[in-house]
Design brief:
The protein is built from one helix and eleven strands, in the order E-E-E-E-E-E-E-E-E-H-E-E. The chain has 130 residues and is mainly β. A hairpin with a 4-residue loop joins strand 7 and strand 8.
Length: 130
């Protein structure tokens, strides 16, 4: 059974940082991508960042470029989202999802990649106070 479990959310002041983790289990081969998404109340779920766990290009939504960094740790099958310079508009539930097998074209299209994800976590709340 494939499982993705997010952690690391919380309450932080504007300008602060958080690191989200996405622990992956049940995927045998490293042929998948992990996408990070967020959904604020009353809004659609939007793509934030994406990468193939074997390495290669990393993709970001324009709204988070220069502030968020996605990276993976193969040793513990975890993909992280380091979020710096947080803003109140970053407040949302953050989800990770897996696309397998990996096609970079899916990751590269941040706006539409949610339609191609195969497995989803349950999310972690991030709240940024002003």
């Amino acid at each position: 059974e494939v499982q993705l479990v997010e952690s690391g959310g919380g309450l932080v002041q504007a300008g602060g940082s958080l690191r989200l983790s996405c622990k992956v289990s049940g995927l045998t081969f490293d042929d998948y991508a992990i996408g990070w998404f967020r959904q604020a109340p009353g809004k659609e779920r939007e793509g934030v960042s994406c990468m193939g766990v074997r390495g290669g290009s990393k993709y970001y939504a324009d709204s988070v470029k220069g502030r968020f960094t996605i990276y993976s740790a193969k040793s513990n099958k975890t993909v992280y989202l380091q979020m710096d310079s947080l803003k109140p508009e970053d407040t949302a539930v953050y989800f990770c999802a897996a696309d397998t097998p990996y096609f970079k074209e899916v990751c590269a299209e941040i706006a539409t990649m949610k339609w191609y994800m195969d497995y989803w976590g349950k999310g972690t709340q991030v709240t940024v106070s002003s």
